[in-house]
Amino acid sequence: MARLLSIVVLLYWSILPTLLAQKKKKAVKKSPSSVVVTSQGVFPIKVSPNGRYLVDRFYRPFLMNADAGWLLLHKLTLNDAKEYMANRANKNFNTIFIQLLPPSPTQSNAYGERPFGKNNDFATPNERYFQYVEDILYHASQLHLLVALAPAWLAGWDEVQFQNGEQKAKLYGEYLGNRFKKHQNVLWIMGGTRDPLREEKIQIAIAEGLRSAAPFQLLTYHAANTHSSTDVFSAEKWLDFSMIHHYFKDKKEGQAQDRPQVYESALAEAQKIPRRAFVLGEAQHEDENEGSDQMVRRQAYWTMLSGGAGHCYGSSVWAFENNWQEKLNLPGANQMAYFSKIMGALPWYLFKADTTSQVLVEGRGKVGGDDYATVGVLPNYRMAAIYLPTGRSIQVNVEKINGTSIRALWISPRTNKRWIGGYFKPKGTRELIPPTLEDDWLLLLGNVGRK
Protein backbone atom coordinates (compact mmCIF):
# COMPACT_ATOMS: atom_id res chain seq x y z
CA MET A 1 0.00 0.00 0.00
CA ALA A 2 2.83 2.44 0.92
CA ARG A 3 4.57 1.64 -2.38
CA LEU A 4 1.41 2.31 -4.39
CA LEU A 5 0.78 5.57 -2.55
CA SER A 6 4.34 6.77 -3.23
CA ILE A 7 3.98 5.99 -6.95
CA VAL A 8 0.66 7.83 -7.13
CA VAL A 9 2.17 10.89 -5.38
CA LEU A 10 5.16 11.00 -7.73
CA LEU A 11 2.92 10.67 -10.82
CA TYR A 12 0.66 13.40 -9.50
CA TRP A 13 3.50 15.91 -9.10
CA SER A 14 4.91 15.03 -12.53
CA ILE A 15 1.69 15.61 -14.53
CA LEU A 16 0.14 18.44 -12.51
CA PRO A 17 2.24 21.26 -14.05
CA THR A 18 1.12 20.17 -17.56
CA LEU A 19 -2.54 19.99 -16.57
CA LEU A 20 -2.45 23.44 -15.03
CA ALA A 21 -0.10 25.22 -17.41
CA GLN A 22 -2.90 26.74 -19.49
CA LYS A 23 -4.68 27.99 -16.39
CA LYS A 24 -1.91 30.30 -15.30
CA LYS A 25 -2.70 33.99 -15.69
CA LYS A 26 -0.08 36.54 -16.47
CA ALA A 27 0.50 39.45 -14.14
CA VAL A 28 -1.19 42.67 -15.21
CA LYS A 29 1.58 45.20 -15.64
CA LYS A 30 0.79 48.66 -14.34
CA SER A 31 3.04 51.54 -13.49
CA PRO A 32 4.87 50.87 -10.22
CA SER A 33 2.97 53.68 -8.55
CA SER A 34 -0.39 51.95 -9.08
CA VAL A 35 0.31 48.25 -8.87
CA VAL A 36 -2.61 45.88 -9.33
CA VAL A 37 -1.53 42.27 -9.69
CA THR A 38 -4.19 39.67 -10.42
CA SER A 39 -1.84 36.68 -10.49
CA GLN A 40 1.85 36.15 -9.86
CA GLY A 41 2.60 32.75 -11.33
CA VAL A 42 3.23 30.16 -8.63
CA PHE A 43 2.43 32.45 -5.71
CA PRO A 44 1.25 32.58 -2.96
CA ILE A 45 3.44 30.06 -1.16
CA LYS A 46 1.71 27.85 1.42
CA VAL A 47 2.64 25.11 3.84
CA SER A 48 2.03 21.58 2.58
CA PRO A 49 -0.96 19.69 4.03
CA ASN A 50 1.38 17.47 6.07
CA GLY A 51 3.27 20.52 7.37
CA ARG A 52 6.70 19.27 6.23
CA TYR A 53 7.53 21.55 3.30
CA LEU A 54 6.32 24.55 1.31
CA VAL A 55 4.10 24.40 -1.77
CA ASP A 56 3.11 26.86 -4.49
CA ARG A 57 -0.43 27.91 -5.36
CA PHE A 58 -0.90 24.66 -7.30
CA TYR A 59 0.30 22.62 -4.29
CA ARG A 60 3.51 21.65 -6.05
CA PRO A 61 6.52 21.39 -3.69
CA PHE A 62 8.38 24.70 -3.50
CA LEU A 63 12.11 24.26 -2.91
CA MET A 64 13.27 27.56 -1.45
CA ASN A 65 16.55 28.63 -3.06
CA ALA A 66 17.02 32.05 -1.50
CA ASP A 67 19.67 34.75 -1.65
CA ALA A 68 20.54 37.19 1.14
CA GLY A 69 19.92 40.69 -0.20
CA TRP A 70 19.25 42.19 3.21
CA LEU A 71 20.13 45.87 2.62
CA LEU A 72 18.65 46.23 -0.86
CA LEU A 73 16.01 48.77 0.20
CA HIS A 74 18.58 50.80 2.11
CA LYS A 75 21.37 50.87 -0.48
CA LEU A 76 19.99 50.43 -4.02
CA THR A 77 18.07 52.58 -6.44
CA LEU A 78 15.34 50.90 -8.45
CA ASN A 79 17.58 50.39 -11.49
CA ASP A 80 20.30 48.79 -9.38
CA ALA A 81 17.73 46.62 -7.63
CA LYS A 82 16.45 45.45 -11.02
CA GLU A 83 19.99 44.45 -11.99
CA TYR A 84 20.46 42.49 -8.76
CA MET A 85 17.10 40.71 -9.00
CA ALA A 86 17.59 39.82 -12.67
CA ASN A 87 20.98 38.29 -11.86
CA ARG A 88 19.51 36.20 -9.07
CA ALA A 89 16.54 35.04 -11.13
CA ASN A 90 18.91 33.98 -13.92
CA LYS A 91 20.79 31.84 -11.39
CA ASN A 92 17.62 29.97 -10.39
CA PHE A 93 17.19 31.76 -7.09
CA ASN A 94 13.47 31.96 -6.40
CA THR A 95 13.51 34.00 -3.17
CA ILE A 96 15.33 37.05 -1.84
CA PHE A 97 15.61 38.06 1.83
CA ILE A 98 15.31 41.81 2.51
CA GLN A 99 15.18 44.01 5.58
CA LEU A 100 12.19 46.31 5.23
CA LEU A 101 13.77 49.10 7.30
CA PRO A 102 17.28 50.60 7.14
CA PRO A 103 19.89 49.02 9.48
CA SER A 104 19.68 51.98 11.86
CA PRO A 105 16.67 54.11 12.85
CA THR A 106 18.64 57.22 11.83
CA GLN A 107 19.12 56.06 8.22
CA SER A 108 17.09 56.35 5.02
CA ASN A 109 16.77 54.55 1.70
CA ALA A 110 18.74 55.33 -1.46
CA TYR A 111 16.35 58.20 -2.24
CA GLY A 112 16.74 59.86 1.14
CA GLU A 113 13.36 58.70 2.45
CA ARG A 114 13.01 57.48 6.02
CA PRO A 115 10.32 54.93 6.91
CA PHE A 116 8.59 56.93 9.65
CA GLY A 117 7.95 60.46 10.79
CA LYS A 118 9.27 62.13 13.91
CA ASN A 119 10.88 59.87 16.55
CA ASN A 120 10.33 56.78 14.38
CA ASP A 121 6.73 56.62 15.45
CA PHE A 122 5.21 53.42 13.99
CA ALA A 123 1.91 55.30 13.65
CA THR A 124 3.45 57.69 11.09
CA PRO A 125 4.63 55.59 8.11
CA ASN A 126 6.16 57.56 5.23
CA GLU A 127 4.16 56.72 2.11
CA ARG A 128 7.05 57.58 -0.22
CA TYR A 129 9.30 55.09 1.56
CA PHE A 130 6.80 52.26 1.38
CA GLN A 131 5.91 53.07 -2.23
CA TYR A 132 9.50 52.18 -3.12
CA VAL A 133 9.02 48.86 -1.33
CA GLU A 134 5.97 48.26 -3.50
CA ASP A 135 7.98 49.06 -6.64
CA ILE A 136 10.50 46.39 -5.65
CA LEU A 137 7.76 43.83 -4.99
CA TYR A 138 6.21 44.56 -8.37
CA HIS A 139 9.44 44.02 -10.29
CA ALA A 140 10.27 40.92 -8.25
CA SER A 141 6.92 39.44 -9.25
CA GLN A 142 7.79 39.93 -12.92
CA LEU A 143 10.86 37.74 -12.32
CA HIS A 144 8.83 35.17 -10.32
CA LEU A 145 10.78 35.99 -7.17
CA LEU A 146 9.37 35.52 -3.70
CA VAL A 147 10.34 38.39 -1.39
CA ALA A 148 10.87 37.62 2.30
CA LEU A 149 10.60 40.91 4.18
CA ALA A 150 11.79 41.49 7.74
CA PRO A 151 9.40 44.19 9.08
CA ALA A 152 11.51 45.37 12.06
CA TRP A 153 15.00 43.87 12.37
CA LEU A 154 15.72 43.35 16.06
CA ALA A 155 19.46 43.98 15.80
CA GLY A 156 19.22 47.74 15.34
CA TRP A 157 15.54 48.50 15.86
CA ASP A 158 15.10 46.86 19.27
CA GLU A 159 14.94 50.11 21.25
CA VAL A 160 12.54 51.74 18.80
CA GLN A 161 10.23 48.75 18.96
CA PHE A 162 10.22 48.84 22.75
CA GLN A 163 9.48 52.58 22.79
CA ASN A 164 6.56 52.22 20.36
CA GLY A 165 4.90 49.56 22.49
CA GLU A 166 2.50 46.73 21.71
CA GLN A 167 -0.46 48.77 20.48
CA LYS A 168 1.48 50.73 17.88
CA ALA A 169 3.41 47.61 16.93
CA LYS A 170 0.18 45.81 16.10
CA LEU A 171 -1.06 48.82 14.12
CA TYR A 172 2.25 48.79 12.22
CA GLY A 173 1.75 45.11 11.39
CA GLU A 174 -1.79 45.84 10.22
CA TYR A 175 -0.52 48.73 8.10
CA LEU A 176 2.05 46.49 6.41
CA GLY A 177 -0.48 43.72 5.86
CA ASN A 178 -3.03 46.06 4.32
CA ARG A 179 -0.39 47.96 2.33
CA PHE A 180 1.11 44.85 0.71
CA LYS A 181 -1.61 42.20 0.81
CA LYS A 182 -2.22 42.63 -2.91
CA HIS A 183 1.23 41.11 -3.49
CA GLN A 184 1.14 37.35 -3.49
CA ASN A 185 4.95 37.05 -3.69
CA VAL A 186 5.53 38.17 -0.08
CA LEU A 187 6.30 36.40 3.17
CA TRP A 188 7.46 37.91 6.46
CA ILE A 189 10.53 37.25 8.63
CA MET A 190 10.08 38.34 12.22
CA GLY A 191 13.04 38.91 14.56
CA GLY A 192 16.44 39.53 13.07
CA THR A 193 19.58 37.60 14.14
CA ARG A 194 18.45 37.81 17.76
CA ASP A 195 16.17 36.07 20.20
CA PRO A 196 13.65 38.55 21.63
CA LEU A 197 14.13 39.70 25.21
CA ARG A 198 11.90 42.56 26.32
CA GLU A 199 10.73 42.89 22.69
CA GLU A 200 9.01 39.49 22.63
CA LYS A 201 5.52 40.96 23.05
CA ILE A 202 6.31 43.62 20.44
CA GLN A 203 7.31 41.01 17.87
CA ILE A 204 4.15 39.04 18.62
CA ALA A 205 2.05 42.20 18.19
CA ILE A 206 3.57 42.98 14.77
CA ALA A 207 3.07 39.37 13.66
CA GLU A 208 -0.54 39.32 14.83
CA GLY A 209 -1.19 42.59 13.02
CA LEU A 210 0.26 41.17 9.82
CA ARG A 211 -1.73 37.95 10.15
CA SER A 212 -5.02 39.76 10.70
CA ALA A 213 -4.56 41.99 7.64
CA ALA A 214 -2.86 39.55 5.24
CA PRO A 215 -3.76 36.03 6.38
CA PHE A 216 -2.38 34.24 3.31
CA GLN A 217 1.16 35.65 3.65
CA LEU A 218 3.42 33.26 5.58
CA LEU A 219 5.42 34.24 8.66
CA THR A 220 8.60 32.84 10.18
CA TYR A 221 11.21 34.02 12.70
CA HIS A 222 14.95 34.75 12.32
CA ALA A 223 16.49 33.76 15.67
CA ALA A 224 20.01 34.06 17.05
CA ASN A 225 22.89 31.94 15.78
CA THR A 226 22.45 28.18 16.49
CA HIS A 227 18.76 28.75 17.27
CA SER A 228 15.61 28.23 15.23
CA SER A 229 12.18 29.83 15.06
CA THR A 230 10.68 27.03 17.12
CA ASP A 231 13.34 27.47 19.81
CA VAL A 232 11.97 30.98 20.32
CA PHE A 233 8.27 30.69 19.46
CA SER A 234 7.21 27.07 19.66
CA ALA A 235 3.49 27.57 20.19
CA GLU A 236 2.60 30.80 18.37
CA LYS A 237 -0.19 30.22 15.85
CA TRP A 238 1.20 32.83 13.47
CA LEU A 239 4.49 30.91 13.02
CA ASP A 240 3.88 29.06 9.75
CA PHE A 241 7.31 27.50 9.21
CA SER A 242 10.65 27.45 10.97
CA MET A 243 14.03 28.90 10.07
CA ILE A 244 17.33 27.68 11.46
CA HIS A 245 20.21 30.13 11.81
CA HIS A 246 23.52 28.36 11.80
CA TYR A 247 27.05 29.23 10.76
CA PHE A 248 29.57 26.68 9.56
CA LYS A 249 31.44 25.14 12.47
CA ASP A 250 34.81 25.98 10.91
CA LYS A 251 34.02 29.70 10.95
CA LYS A 252 36.93 31.37 12.75
CA GLU A 253 34.86 33.50 15.07
CA GLY A 254 33.67 33.27 18.66
CA GLN A 255 33.04 29.85 20.14
CA ALA A 256 32.95 28.09 16.78
CA GLN A 257 34.12 24.75 18.10
CA ASP A 258 31.31 24.67 20.66
CA ARG A 259 28.51 25.02 18.13
CA PRO A 260 26.95 22.00 16.42
CA GLN A 261 27.15 21.45 12.70
CA VAL A 262 24.43 22.61 10.31
CA TYR A 263 23.22 19.06 9.76
CA GLU A 264 22.96 18.47 13.51
CA SER A 265 20.66 21.46 13.90
CA ALA A 266 18.65 20.43 10.86
CA LEU A 267 18.23 16.86 12.08
CA ALA A 268 17.16 18.14 15.50
CA GLU A 269 14.60 20.47 13.93
CA ALA A 270 13.17 17.63 11.86
CA GLN A 271 12.59 15.59 15.04
CA LYS A 272 10.51 18.21 16.81
CA ILE A 273 6.84 17.59 17.54
CA PRO A 274 4.79 19.02 16.02
CA ARG A 275 6.97 18.86 12.91
CA ARG A 276 7.16 22.12 10.98
CA ALA A 277 8.61 22.82 7.57
CA PHE A 278 11.99 24.50 8.00
CA VAL A 279 14.68 26.16 5.94
CA LEU A 280 18.28 27.15 6.61
CA GLY A 281 17.63 30.88 6.87
CA GLU A 282 21.16 32.12 7.46
CA ALA A 283 24.50 30.35 7.41
CA GLN A 284 28.15 30.81 6.43
CA HIS A 285 28.57 33.40 3.68
CA GLU A 286 30.76 32.41 0.77
CA ASP A 287 33.25 35.28 0.86
CA GLU A 288 33.13 36.38 4.49
CA ASN A 289 34.95 35.04 7.57
CA GLU A 290 36.96 32.49 5.60
CA GLY A 291 33.89 31.11 3.84
CA SER A 292 34.06 29.32 0.50
CA ASP A 293 31.87 27.86 -2.22
CA GLN A 294 32.57 24.44 -0.73
CA MET A 295 31.06 25.54 2.59
CA VAL A 296 27.88 26.93 1.07
CA ARG A 297 27.38 23.77 -1.00
CA ARG A 298 27.75 21.60 2.11
CA GLN A 299 25.26 23.69 4.04
CA ALA A 300 22.64 23.47 1.30
CA TYR A 301 22.85 19.71 0.69
CA TRP A 302 23.25 18.88 4.38
CA THR A 303 20.02 20.76 5.08
CA MET A 304 18.01 19.13 2.31
CA LEU A 305 19.00 15.56 3.22
CA SER A 306 18.30 16.26 6.89
CA GLY A 307 14.65 17.13 6.32
CA GLY A 308 14.89 20.76 5.19
CA ALA A 309 12.67 22.54 2.68
CA GLY A 310 15.28 24.96 1.36
CA HIS A 311 18.05 27.35 2.32
CA CYS A 312 19.39 30.86 1.89
CA TYR A 313 22.73 31.41 0.17
CA GLY A 314 24.78 34.30 1.51
CA SER A 315 27.67 36.45 0.30
CA SER A 316 28.95 39.98 0.89
CA VAL A 317 26.40 41.11 -1.68
CA TRP A 318 23.91 41.36 1.20
CA ALA A 319 25.44 44.70 2.28
CA PHE A 320 25.65 46.13 -1.27
CA GLU A 321 29.01 47.81 -0.82
CA ASN A 322 30.71 49.57 -3.75
CA ASN A 323 31.88 46.31 -5.36
CA TRP A 324 28.60 44.39 -5.03
CA GLN A 325 28.20 43.88 -8.80
CA GLU A 326 31.58 42.12 -8.92
CA LYS A 327 30.41 39.70 -6.22
CA LEU A 328 27.23 38.66 -8.03
CA ASN A 329 28.99 35.88 -9.91
CA LEU A 330 30.95 34.18 -7.17
CA PRO A 331 31.38 30.42 -7.77
CA GLY A 332 28.96 29.50 -5.01
CA ALA A 333 26.21 31.68 -6.46
CA ASN A 334 26.49 29.87 -9.79
CA GLN A 335 26.55 26.51 -8.01
CA MET A 336 23.25 27.35 -6.30
CA ALA A 337 21.72 27.28 -9.77
CA TYR A 338 22.94 23.67 -10.03
CA PHE A 339 21.59 23.00 -6.54
CA SER A 340 18.15 24.11 -7.67
CA LYS A 341 18.28 21.90 -10.76
CA ILE A 342 19.68 18.85 -8.99
CA MET A 343 17.45 18.85 -5.92
CA GLY A 344 14.44 20.18 -7.80
CA ALA A 345 14.50 17.13 -10.08
CA LEU A 346 14.33 14.77 -7.08
CA PRO A 347 11.37 13.93 -4.81
CA TRP A 348 13.17 15.76 -2.00
CA TYR A 349 9.87 16.47 -0.24
CA LEU A 350 9.37 12.71 0.27
CA PHE A 351 12.87 12.02 1.60
CA LYS A 352 13.32 11.11 5.23
CA ALA A 353 16.70 11.46 6.89
CA ASP A 354 18.50 8.17 7.59
CA THR A 355 21.08 8.42 10.37
CA THR A 356 21.49 4.66 10.74
CA SER A 357 24.06 2.41 9.06
CA GLN A 358 21.44 0.43 7.17
CA VAL A 359 22.11 2.04 3.76
CA LEU A 360 25.47 3.77 4.21
CA VAL A 361 27.37 1.03 6.02
CA GLU A 362 30.85 2.58 6.02
CA GLY A 363 32.25 5.97 5.08
CA ARG A 364 29.71 8.28 6.71
CA GLY A 365 32.27 10.21 8.73
CA LYS A 366 32.13 11.36 12.32
CA VAL A 367 29.13 13.19 13.76
CA GLY A 368 30.23 16.75 14.43
CA GLY A 369 32.82 16.67 11.67
CA ASP A 370 32.96 18.68 8.45
CA ASP A 371 33.01 15.52 6.34
CA TYR A 372 29.84 13.90 7.73
CA ALA A 373 27.65 12.35 5.01
CA THR A 374 23.91 12.91 5.14
CA VAL A 375 21.50 10.32 3.72
CA GLY A 376 17.92 10.71 2.55
CA VAL A 377 15.67 7.81 1.56
CA LEU A 378 12.19 7.51 0.11
CA PRO A 379 9.65 5.90 2.45
CA ASN A 380 9.43 2.88 0.11
CA TYR A 381 13.25 2.70 -0.20
CA ARG A 382 13.16 2.80 -4.00
CA MET A 383 15.68 5.66 -3.90
CA ALA A 384 18.44 6.86 -1.61
CA ALA A 385 20.49 10.05 -1.87
CA ILE A 386 23.88 10.33 -0.16
CA TYR A 387 25.77 13.61 0.11
CA LEU A 388 29.53 13.22 0.61
CA PRO A 389 31.24 16.48 1.62
CA THR A 390 34.56 14.94 0.54
CA GLY A 391 35.39 12.27 -2.04
CA ARG A 392 36.03 8.84 -0.57
CA SER A 393 35.26 5.16 -0.89
CA ILE A 394 32.03 4.10 0.81
CA GLN A 395 30.24 0.82 1.51
CA VAL A 396 26.53 0.71 0.65
CA ASN A 397 24.07 -2.02 1.51
CA VAL A 398 22.19 -2.16 -1.80
CA GLU A 399 19.76 -4.75 -0.44
CA LYS A 400 18.04 -1.85 1.29
CA ILE A 401 17.10 -0.33 -2.07
CA ASN A 402 13.73 -1.75 -3.09
CA GLY A 403 13.79 -2.98 -6.68
CA THR A 404 15.18 -5.46 -9.16
CA SER A 405 17.97 -3.45 -10.80
CA ILE A 406 19.83 -0.67 -9.00
CA ARG A 407 21.65 2.20 -10.68
CA ALA A 408 24.30 4.31 -8.98
CA LEU A 409 24.59 7.87 -10.31
CA TRP A 410 27.27 10.32 -9.20
CA ILE A 411 26.49 14.04 -9.50
CA SER A 412 28.99 16.85 -8.92
CA PRO A 413 27.32 19.67 -6.96
CA ARG A 414 30.14 21.91 -8.19
CA THR A 415 29.60 21.36 -11.94
CA ASN A 416 26.35 19.34 -12.26
CA LYS A 417 28.24 16.75 -14.32
CA ARG A 418 27.10 13.15 -13.94
CA TRP A 419 28.71 9.73 -14.06
CA ILE A 420 27.11 6.30 -13.98
CA GLY A 421 28.55 4.39 -11.03
CA GLY A 422 27.20 1.04 -12.13
CA TYR A 423 24.12 -1.17 -12.43
CA PHE A 424 23.72 -4.11 -10.09
CA LYS A 425 21.28 -6.42 -8.40
CA PRO A 426 20.11 -5.48 -4.89
CA LYS A 427 22.27 -8.02 -3.16
CA GLY A 428 24.86 -7.54 -0.43
CA THR A 429 27.15 -4.63 0.25
CA ARG A 430 29.04 -2.84 -2.52
CA GLU A 431 31.99 -0.51 -2.49
CA LEU A 432 31.32 2.70 -4.42
CA ILE A 433 33.95 5.29 -5.27
CA PRO A 434 33.21 8.71 -6.81
CA PRO A 435 34.83 9.65 -10.15
CA THR A 436 37.46 11.69 -8.29
CA LEU A 437 38.39 12.03 -4.64
CA GLU A 438 38.28 15.82 -4.86
CA ASP A 439 35.41 18.06 -3.77
CA ASP A 440 31.96 16.86 -2.76
CA TRP A 441 29.54 14.41 -4.39
CA LEU A 442 25.88 13.49 -4.44
CA LEU A 443 25.21 9.79 -4.99
CA LEU A 444 21.77 8.63 -6.12
CA LEU A 445 20.84 4.98 -5.75
CA GLY A 446 17.55 3.98 -7.30
CA ASN A 447 15.57 1.16 -8.83
CA VAL A 448 15.55 1.13 -12.64
CA GLY A 449 13.83 -2.25 -12.99
CA ARG A 450 10.15 -2.96 -13.41
CA LYS A 451 9.42 -3.90 -9.84
How would you describe this protein?
With 451 residues, this protein is of the alpha/beta class. The chain has two domains: 33-349, Glycosidases (TIM Barrel, Alpha-Beta Barrel); 354-447, Immunoglobulin-like (Sandwich). Helix content is 30%, strand content 19%. The chain contains eleven helices and 20 strands. The strands form five sheets. Strands 8-7-6-5-4-11 form a six-stranded parallel β-sheet. The protein has a six-stranded antiparallel β-sheet with strand order 12-14-15-20-17-18, covered by helices on one side. A hairpin with a 5-residue loop joins β14 and β15. α9 (293-304) runs parallel beside α11 (331-344). The radius of gyration is 22 Å and the shape is elongated. The two termini are 14 Å apart. Residues 1-39 have low confidence and may be disordered.
